[in-house]
């Protein structure tokens, strides 16, 4: 039975294995860099770095413009057509460069009108986010060659880690953190371009206005979906940094990193299987994958609850044990979000319901903002309250996606 499933999903299992190597690196490297940064920079300066990265994340969504989903679909569809692949690559990179220039212009203009303390850290974080956005991970995902994604991610993280350990010596070196991430991403960008040139994917052709508008139009739904997702993902950090303090940002960030270390496993499953299900619409196979995701996400949640003390002390020190108070609530996100994401990508998007996917994200965002406003009006802004608000919005997102599956007669893909 196991051999049968392996043969059936040989490429996907191989891709997931490569992505799992990336995930292993994502879990191990923070064991080194996170305690180091907390101890070297201090909680407040570390919180400032995280806060600046959250600002940059908003711009990164604008720069990527949904290409991480739309371009992946297109590459998967035209994987044997070198001319079409070159067209996709040139248009995507050109648009991302244009959106970066717009972003840097907006940020510099804002700093000129409203002087901000520590503005350099925001600019460096944006530059690092831009270089990371340029990495053609969407291309390698589309052709189902996850070994290149593994190579890109691991090299970037290792180089960044080495730079951080060498160049961050005291609390005044907080500016070097985004610079180190920038160096790592820039190095693997050149490696990625070398791979693409070697495979004759890149040809120096300028995109036409018609083709640029075509890619803009077709990516619009995905960029708004990504924007709504990042608004939920990063607004908690923004609210904590604004109303509570940078120490709360540091606490929240540590808990979020623990949760995402496990959540990323299921995100990798989505990445590995999305191109396959885009080409092969098979309800029974989708149902099997969703069931596996549910079982292992539940086990992950139980693991975090049982071993939270050990995990926290492994990543930091006793002063951070305070995050236990809300970690078990935040960890529920692993189950809810993994199921919601799988249903959204494997069922709604695969079957052509991208607009419904967009409206679903809009409902989730409005729910989140309404709950946050309710909390702000009646209670204090706190980590626990914001975590509950976020998880409730994801639960609404999941339930609405199940409703959409029923509406479009796709429930047989889920149960």
TrEMBL record:
<feature type="transmembrane region" description="Helical">
    <location>
        <begin position="50"/>
        <end position="67"/>
    </location>
</feature>
<feature type="transmembrane region" description="Helical">
    <location>
        <begin position="289"/>
        <end position="314"/>
    </location>
</feature>
<feature type="transmembrane region" description="Helical">
    <location>
        <begin position="121"/>
        <end position="141"/>
    </location>
</feature>
<dbReference type="Pfam" id="PF01943">
    <property type="entry name" value="Polysacc_synt"/>
</dbReference>
<feature type="transmembrane region" description="Helical">
    <location>
        <begin position="16"/>
        <end position="38"/>
    </location>
</feature>
<keyword id="KW-1133">Transmembrane helix</keyword>
<feature type="transmembrane region" description="Helical">
    <location>
        <begin position="174"/>
        <end position="197"/>
    </location>
</feature>
<dbReference type="GO" id="GO:0005886">
    <property type="term" value="C:plasma membrane"/>
</dbReference>
<feature type="transmembrane region" description="Helical">
    <location>
        <begin position="148"/>
        <end position="168"/>
    </location>
</feature>
<keyword id="KW-1003">Cell membrane</keyword>
<feature type="transmembrane region" description="Helical">
    <location>
        <begin position="88"/>
        <end position="115"/>
    </location>
</feature>
<feature type="transmembrane region" description="Helical">
    <location>
        <begin position="326"/>
        <end position="350"/>
    </location>
</feature>
<feature type="transmembrane region" description="Helical">
    <location>
        <begin position="357"/>
        <end position="376"/>
    </location>
</feature>
<keyword id="KW-0812">Transmembrane</keyword>
<dbReference type="InterPro" id="IPR050833">
    <property type="entry name" value="Poly_Biosynth_Transport"/>
</dbReference>
<dbReference type="InterPro" id="IPR002797">
    <property type="entry name" value="Polysacc_synth"/>
</dbReference>
<feature type="transmembrane region" description="Helical">
    <location>
        <begin position="382"/>
        <end position="399"/>
    </location>
</feature>
<protein>
    <submittedName>
        <fullName>Wzx</fullName>
    </submittedName>
</protein>
<feature type="transmembrane region" description="Helical">
    <location>
        <begin position="258"/>
        <end position="277"/>
    </location>
</feature>
<keyword id="KW-0472">Membrane</keyword>
């Amino acid at each position: 039975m196991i051999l049968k499933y392996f043969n059936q999903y040989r490429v996907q299992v191989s891709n997931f294995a490569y992505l799992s190597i990336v995930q292993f690196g994502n879990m191990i490297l923070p064991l080194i860099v996170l305690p180091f940064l907390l101890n070297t920079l201090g909680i407040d300066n570390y919180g400032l770095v995280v806060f600046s990265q959250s600002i940059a994340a908003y711009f990164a969504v604008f720069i990527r413009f949904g290409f991480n989903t739309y371009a992946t679909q297109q590459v998967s569809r035209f994987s044997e057509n070198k001319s079409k692949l070159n067209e996709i690559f040139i248009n995507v990179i050109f648009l991302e460069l244009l959106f970066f220039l717009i972003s840097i212009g907006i940020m510099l203009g804002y700093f000129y009108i409203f002087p901000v303390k520590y503005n350099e850290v925001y600019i460096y974080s944006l530059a690092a986010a831009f270089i990371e956005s340029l990495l053609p991970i969407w291309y390698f995902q589309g052709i189902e060659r996850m070994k290149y994604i593994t190579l890109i991610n691991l090299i970037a993280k290792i180089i960044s880690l080495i730079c951080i350990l060498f160049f961050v010596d005291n609390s005044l070196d907080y500016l070097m953190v985004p610079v180190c991430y920038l160096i790592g991403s820039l190095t693997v960008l050149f490696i990625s371009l070398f791979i693409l040139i070697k495979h004759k994917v890149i040809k120096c052709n300028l995109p036409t206005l018609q083709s640029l508008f075509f890619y803009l139009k077709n990516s619009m739904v995905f960029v708004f979906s990504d924007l709504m997702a990042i608004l939920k993902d990063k607004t908690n950090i923004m609210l904590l940094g604004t109303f509570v303090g940078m120490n709360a940002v540091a606490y929240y960030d540590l808990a979020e990193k623990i949760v995402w270390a496990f959540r990323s496993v299921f995100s990798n499953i989505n990445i590995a299987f999305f191109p396959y299900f885009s080409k092969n619409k098979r309800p029974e196979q989708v149902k099997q994958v969703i069931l596996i995701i549910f079982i292992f996400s539940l086990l992950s949640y139980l693991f975090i609850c049982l071993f939270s003390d050990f995990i926290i002390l492994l990543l930091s020190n006793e002063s951070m044990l305070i995050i236990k108070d809300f970690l078990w609530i935040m960890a529920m996100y692993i189950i809810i979000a993994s199921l919601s994401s799988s249903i959204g990508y494997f069922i709604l998007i695969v079957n052509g319901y991208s607009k419904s996917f967009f409206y679903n994200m809009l409902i989730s965002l409005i729910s989140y903002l309404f709950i946050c406003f309710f909390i702000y009006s009646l209670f204090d802004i706190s980590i626990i309250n914001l975590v509950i608000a976020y998880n409730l919005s994801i639960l609404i997102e999941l339930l609405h996606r199940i409703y959409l599956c029923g509406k479009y007669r796709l429930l047989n893909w889920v149960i």
